[in-house]
Amino acid sequence: MTQEIEKVKSFIIGSGPAGYTAAIYASRANLSPVMYQGMEPGGQLTTTTEVENFPGYPEGVEGPAMMADLQKQAERMGADVRWGVVTKADLSERPFKIETDDGKYFEAESVIIATGASAKYLGIESEEKYKGAGVSGCATCDGFFYKGKPVAVVGGGDTAAEDALYLSNIVSKVYMIVRRDELRASKVMAQRVIDNPAIEILWNHVTKEIVGTENGFMKSVNGAILENVKTGEEKKIDIDGFFVAIGHHPNTQLFEGQIDLDQQGYIITKPNSTATNIEGVFAAGDVQDHIFRQAITAAGSGCMAAIESERWISEQD
Q: Is 195 annotated in the active site?
């Protein structure tokens, strides 16, 4: 029995601001894009409560609602948005060969990768319980909601230092929870943290549990129980927000050995472009951006990827 192969001009892997924006632009360019949304349709923003820094929403918007809006807009433009996961992508030759978990096979003239990056979390049960309700992996996304309130940042590297410094201008106090007795951050960043009176570093501590309150479906964080790794002594800190800053991992496992990746696993794109080392394959959003990691920058790169994809396809005809 011969497997039916669906042929498409533009195949978009992953959703979120980058993927949906790419789908909008690709649709308007008559590329009839097919998108597979991935394991987490809408990406990281679906775990965010209110988004206040995305243009066009003057009153703010819930993360999942904004992703639903972007999906509706992409579909209205003509994008074929499908729920599911790409399980295999052979990018060795054109047309590119794609397989999905629903047993479908595709041949694509161009591919836009928008699989994003996932924040690394501690892996404790209470962290998952309060994710999006006090627990966050993005200080620049959610810090504003804790204006004038105490928060904690977990981590000792540059990301944690940057988050702690950023939050110190918004919140009343930042507890920085550091497993070791020194910061892994660069010396300049570490000194800025140490010199900041709004930041209290809790050396040699790990998080045992995040505690909070529940009222029906409403949850909120009000503290964290920490353990001193040297003495075993436990202590509770009173906080309203808990920020995990132990890094991100790009969702690029599917493309290892095919696309050029940096040491952290992010896709390398050409300067001022979303083009990868493979002609006809483009990357947009957090999968290739470990610096800004914002919804608006992801959307912008999704626009770029679709425009570059359309131009590239037209040049092949």
A: no
